Fold this sequence. Notes:
Helix content: 25-40%
Order of helices and strands: HHHHHHEEEHEHEHHEEEEEEEH
CATH class of the largest domain: Alpha Beta
CATH topology of the largest domain: Nucleotidyltransferase, domain 5
Radius of gyration: 32 Å
CATH superfamily of the largest domain: Ribonuclease H-like superfamily/Ribonuclease H
Structural class: alpha+beta
Number of helices: 11
Shape: elongated
Amino acid sequence: MAWNMVDRREQRVRFVVLARERKKPFSQLCQEFGISRPTGYRWRRRFEQEGTPGVEEKSRRPHTSPQRTAAGVEQQIVELRQQRPDWGARKLQPLLAGQGVRLPVITVHRVLLRQGLVRQQDGHPAAVQRFERAAPNELWQMDFKSPKGWGQAVGPLSVLDDHSRYVVRLAQTGSTRTEAVREQLQTAFQECGVPQGMLMDHGVPWWNGQAASGWTELGVWLMRQGIELHFSRIRHPQTQGKVERFHGALEMARRKRGLPEGEPRQAWLDNFRYEYNHVRPHEGLGMRTPASLWHVSPRSYDPNPTAWDYGAGSEVYRLNRNGQLKLQGRWWQVSEALRQQWVEVKPIDQRILVYYCRSLVREINLATQRSTAVDRWVQPSICNACGDNAV
């Protein structure tokens, strides 16, 4: 019986009419209509007692809900949700607890559903596994947000700590120029110290797609601070999963809360950064805040670093103005971005490894007379091991 083709009430009335005519055995009739015999008897009884309205779908909702959340508490939940329309039940629950209201997450979620403030289909499964660096400031992730909705050629620049998810910098630069990004990083280093490493994608200004080595002036400046540079593989945004997830939260806030009109956007970004770091609980951190796990890096920023100390006994050469290294009477291209910089050379059999500060940048094979830029991308095996986001 095609129940979805006609009105449910009409189907039930037809059943009752056929049952009263007794032209077919009751069990056979129930089978044809796809119902059990007790259900058939119930429909017939209701029809006999109430007529056609009696066979309509009855609400299974209880007449009373003694355990339903009090109206005042529901209003409190609604007000918090209205203040932070991009937060769900898991993140609102700790705020409620801070106000003396302790409720299970499912209760908060049901209130939001009942008030039409969330949709059931908007939920998403939690990550099966999460990975991060062992301590704060071991690795920072950096990327630009998509410009969509921001009214500028590029979205905000985000710099985030891999271990704690702490956002060390969030700024609207207006462009991807080296000077603009360097200015923001200087501020981050002065306030938060210097990380051991940084992870970026293959975008400007930290990557030069036109150069064989990919190095840029910004990258050289970062390496002079003793920062190891890492790059995600092309078309693998999941390698930077934490900063991508942060951008998802930022985009949700922009859509739900809206951006200020006629006011500097940076104030809005500063407020969001503070809330994300100090107020918003993070599921990946056991509902703790990033600020509770992060601390300033002990490595301080030096605006004028001296020449890198490669250690006693190291074989050190200075590249020429074209970024070339002279070995055995021949010039080898290392990187134009490293022009006139001092590099360390480590011979291993017929291979020469060229280091700039802490980073291996070139390999020269004397046997084959070939020079190869060292792959600084995050390796696939590492990406697979890291699941959602870590290097």
